[in-house]
């Protein structure tokens, strides 16, 4: 196998698992290998994996403080206290607020929601909002997808008679805020079986516990799993365990009878005439919801998601779609500016293991996307900063396998605020601290990153012959959905394939190759597409053998037929 393709053999334990599964899937040998890779060792576990059931979700009361959270909410409702549902301005935060607010509104009227503006208030809870909440009579704030580091703010709120229930999933510090309850599966000592819930997922578990404590039917809440599925896909949390169950059922809801606001977005995206997949959520639905908070106000996204009238929702969705178009233009311009700076100062950046780049004029709502683009382009942990409210504020993104949260945590004494996950962290610091932060961040990365983590590598899940790509195999492969971190779409390798004689260049600049391939194991001809691989065409057309790594895609046609296409990710020319 060429060095940039990695095919990791199963460990001894996983080989044993594959052997136990092999008889069940004797007609499709690669399936038992794919299951074993995912830690599935028995036929019973495989059946549960292939048929996710809501009955297999964990009790919400396994999460620390859940009893406290439910009791405080029940008390607030019993005393008719005013409740505020507060959340972050991104997809995860706005879906979380929409879910909790909309669900509780069915049983309680003295409730409102609030989303801070990215530019005036910034991330998390502010003193100004606490003062306004107290003045309006709020006595309980349910804060979602943020709050785990708001120690001083929540101390202040207590002096004004306001309690907090924190529903967060970001990494906590040693000191925790003095909230009435903290729901976070990442808390030290937590034994909650699914530690990587989205923020909306934590909110869902809270509402699930509330429903159970009050003897409410589960159906009404489960009908809101489309919101949870959108949050899980957009926040890129692991697609395993409970997350995969909720996404599976959320996608079913999204395809049958979605939330009114999501239905409007689906219409805007022109997704109404086909099955909506996790990719559609990541690349079409999620970015539009996110654009509201990036370009204007996340409150508009919540207004969309809690709307009951489709006409009203469609009007909001059109506004949000325009925000997304504006976002794309800004994203393109700022990424080009950042890349120009890096190319102009190659001597400064090329030998470093990380990138920290700052421009005081960049749009705060776009820098997270730009950080992702820069990381993808240079394959280094990257931090992109701009100026906001007197502070250098930014986002960071990491490469596969490197914990950027630990890298930024090592510089915490230079920061005003920070928080996030293993692969993405938001931060703010004083402008004068940027040089020292850059130096120390680079040192931490250089000391801790592995050389292999600085080069994009393609992992191969299984070696496959064309003879093994049978209808039965495709049917079982379909059941591995939904895909995401921890359950990525399988990538296969087939050795020594050849052009059937009909492959051709396509695309505006003839940069892609439309393939028709055969191997020596069957008489099957498989269609494929290799994007941006035009340089291989002369070799392919010479009818010499080459290796491909690819995913298997199903294309559904208007006449209800389905065809198979190989999405070729890379090509390796054979030596002999």
From TrEMBL:
Q: Which UniProt keywords apply?
A: Exonuclease, Hydrolase, Nuclease
Family matches, as SUPFAM superfamilies: DHH phosphoesterases (SSF64182)
Domain DDH residue range list: 82-232
Q: Name one GO biological process term.
A: DNA recombination
Q: Which organism is it from?
A: Muribaculum intestinale
Identification of the protein by name:
Single-stranded-DNA-specific exonuclease RecJ
Q: Which GO terms describe its molecular function?
A: 5'-3' exonuclease activity; nucleic acid binding
In this chain the DHHA1 domain maps to: 353-446
The UniProt family comment states: Belongs to the RecJ family.
The residue ranges of the RecJ OB domain are 460-570
